[in-house]
Amino acid sequence: MADAATGGGNGTGIGDAGGGGTRYVPISEHGLIGDLRSVALVGSDGTIDWYCCPSFDSPSVFAAILDAERGGAFELAAIGEARTKQFYFPDTNVLITRFFTEDGVGEVQDFMPVGGDSARHPVEAERHRLIRRVVCVRGTVGFRARVAPRFDYGARPHTLRLESGRAVFASEDLSLALTSTVPLEVAGPDARAEFKLTEGESAVFALDQVSGGVPPRACAAGEAQAQFETTVTYWRRWLSASKYKGRWREMVHRSALTLKLLTYAPTGAIVAAPTTSLPEQLGGERNWDYRYVWVRDAAFCVYALLRLGFTEEAGAFMEFVTRHITPGDGRLSGPLQVMYGIDGRTDLAERELGHLEGHQGSAPVRIGNAAADQLQLDIYGALIDSIYLYDKWATPISSDQWDDVCALVDWVCEHWDQPDEGIWETRGGRKNFLYSRLMCWVAIERAIRMANRRGLPADHARWQQVRDVIYRRIMSHGWSERRQAFVQYEDSDVLDASVLMMPLTKFIAPTDPKWLSTLDALTHDLVSDSLVYRYDPVASPDGLRGDEGTFSICSFWYVEALVHAGRLDEARLAFEKMLTYANHLGLYAEEISHTGEQQGNFPQAFTHFALISAAFNLDRALG
After folding, report:
1. Which of 365, 388, 511, 544 has minimal Cβ neighbours within 10 Å of its Cβ?
2. Could you read off the pLDDT of 38-54 as tens digits, one per residue?
3. Quick one: which H or E segment has residue 403?
């Protein structure tokens, strides 16, 4: 849990001043709720400052995390000075924020209903309800609420009217209805409420989408309680399928619950993160939109969920792959695009929103992602490896799916030796990245394994010949005699943390002298108190200004590499240190700053997948 001070629920937050002197809640001071279609971020001060409706990549309704003045927020907090603590209702994605005041203790229970009517009735599934239940648990507590949506990233105006006890916010493309068990008042474009509760009393706020054929619907206290219970039951039933019984179980399960929140139920898509433009460095330009399906990230998440026994999500993603990713369509970037929309669309044009100042003044704010058109050869290995594991651990793939795999492998055999932008999506020009070569090897090697295990038809001679050529190429051109290490790109001396995947993919023995020398070099140059930098941007310019923090997925890969090398004491210490960098709820962004702050989009699927994998393998090695 985290302690924080709030100043009467006025949305001032607890963070450092951004542009114009407005204060922001730091990235790490947030919890996440969702309904498998979208999510909301809830600050430790009780403010919802990020929410897109009706889906992950829809325009924002609340975006104060990107601009405290213009972004919009749903503020709900105790009146007067209060300490706050945040935690999840055990084994669920129901978030509770507690307020400790001089006169009593109150809490806000935040959730987006799943299960129940939302699962049975299509109209209710489109309601996208967000419930905030306020309860006084001791003494007397006064609360203040301000609901201030700013549609379309704060760019589109709206009207507000009170009708039949509800406040209706209507913009051109989206309308939301706020119902409450306490009186609401209109204050310009916003709705406000102020009320006092004594021990045992409660109040309910429910925000519903009411456009697109969804009728208005009140949310009485009894209905809120029923939906709370249904939602709790849904999450606990889902988590009960986990087969993980090892150490760090609570952290592993929180990561699994987070990955589940990042899935888009209608299509089986898995987003890389639910936010856009949270900065990798305060004041820097490394701000990207992650609300899309990266083939690489989603494939790795499938691996983590399969490891824990969650086969349904893996199957849904395989259906997404089959439905939306069709080999052989002639794109310059290859038969696979780097990323897709959650509905499978391929046009993700990138643009900047100049009217938003960015988190703590970190502009630009971007929507869309130009990296979608890059060539990143490693995605073929990540996808085919996940298909291989799904075929092995869950359900055998179909004959049509095998034909798709063969088409992908044949394309890799033809194009593996091209320079590309690589896993880190560099905007500094294409290179012959070792990691891309490695994952092309994985793509072919896993397909050969699948063919051999199931007796499937394959061009064995060609596949094996190309696989072996790639192996020799990596060993000869990816090794630096001067550094005594495998390097970032061919015939260079630049170190890169992505090579930590070499033993994890079984390309090289984890005790091979060349690998152990590489591990030592990485430890010396890129590791800081168990935290791992991706690479040195000075030694390998990536086309962007500014520095970045350590990359959390690389830090967990480092743990696994130590495990496979038999250095268990070092691995365990590094893992335990990494756990101290999680936020108060066990959530991680993409990076960690030199002062230990979360940086980048939040929470990050990549990081939580890597935590699960590192915990699983370290626990198994410890016995």
Report:
1. 511
2. 999 999 999 999 999 99
3. helix 399-415
